Structure formats: structure tokens, C-alpha cells
Backbone:
């Protein structure tokens, strides 16, 4: 269901249901490779499953993958956007899709939806 990459940033797990904004959708391989290799992508944002049980989703700037802490905890990416506004739009789509399918939106339904 999910694909772990064994490159420089091995902490990245790409979910098969990944959401992409229009710009990333045109060149998804370019964005994925740059994140996996730990290259800086200005204004690129990743939506991930939460790092704690209090959140439903997390939004990270791709710059945060440079920090050792992020590499140690591992991140499952469920959305990829070229800019912050695109990331917010993806979160809106994800919330809408989960509510349509599960009837409610919380950390448990998010986890179930992406499994």
C-alpha cells in the first residue's frame, strides 16, 4: 500500500493515495526525487499523517526534511503541493473526501482512509 524510498531521505514514505496540486501533478517525479534526495525545493509543502494523536494531518515545508529529528521519526506523505496555498487546497480536498466516505473527520478516520 505504501512505498518506502531508500534514498538520502529514507524517512519519506509515499502513500499510494497521494494527493497532488496541479503544478506537482505535471511533474510528480521531479518533486518526489528532490524530496527523497534531500534537495531544497523552495515553497514545496508536504501533507503527512500526523506525528501525534492530537492532529489529523500535518503540513510541512520541504525544508523541514533537512532536520535530523524529521529523518529519525519518518514521515508518511499523503499530499504534495508546490506552494502553501496549494497545500491548504489539498487539505480541503482530503477533508471533503474523508467526510464523504467515512461520515466524519478525525485522526482515526484519516488513518483508516489512507490505509
Residues:
Amino acid at each position: 500500500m505504501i512505498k518506502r524510498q531508500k534514498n538520502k531521505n529514507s524517512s519519506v514514505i509515499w502513500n499510494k493515495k497521494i494527493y497532488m496540486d496541479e503544478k506537482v501533478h505535471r511533474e510528480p517525479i521531479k518533486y518526489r526525487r528532490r524530496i527523497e534526495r534531500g534537495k531544497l525545493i523552495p515553497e514545496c509543502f508536504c501533507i503527512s499523517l500526523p506525528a501525534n494523536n492530537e492532529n489529523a494531518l500535518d503540513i510541512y515545508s520541504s525544508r523541514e526534511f533537512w532536520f535530523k529529528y524529521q529523518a529519525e521519526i519518518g514521515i508518511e506523505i499523503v499530499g504534495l503541493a508546490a506552494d502553501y496555498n496549494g497545500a491548504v487546497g489539498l487539505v480541503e480536498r482530503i477533508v471533503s473526501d474523508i467526510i464523504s466516505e467515512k461520515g466524519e473527520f478525525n485522526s482515526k478516520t484519516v488513518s483508516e482512509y489512507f490505509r
Q: What stands out?
A: Helices lie at 22-26, 28-36, 68-73, 84-102, 107-113.
